[in-house]
Design goal:
Layout (H helix, E strand, L loop, with lengths): L2 H17 L2 E2 L7 E2 L5 H6 L12 H30 L3
Antiparallel strand pairs: 1-2
């Protein structure tokens, strides 16, 4: 595994998390499955303070962009930590 793989694994896992918590069709009803998007806010906790200012569809887009980058960085840092702990 390398740095790019770790980063993109984090992004893909975050996109999967979002995919399981939103409803897409019909497009008029686009939003979170629950009444509010609490699960997305909790998943992106350090930057999710920004999300409170927006409606559900905008929150989902922000989570897709900012949250995916955040998760990619998390996975990259975890990979670097494991690489340092378990030197191969």
């Amino acid at each position: 595994m390398n740095n790019k793989t770790a980063f993109f694994t984090g992004i893909l896992l975050h996109i999967f998390l979002i995919w399981t918590r939103i409803k897409i069709l019909p497009f008029e009803d686009f939003g979170c499955i629950n009444k509010d998007c609490t699960s997305l806010i909790v998943a992106d906790i350090p930057i999710s303070i920004i999300y409170f200012a927006f409606s559900d569809p905008v929150l989902i887009v922000f989570s897709l962009i900012l949250g995916s980058i955040l998760w990619g960085v998390y996975f990259l840092l975890i990979y670097k930590l494991f690489q340092k702990i378990f030197k191969s």
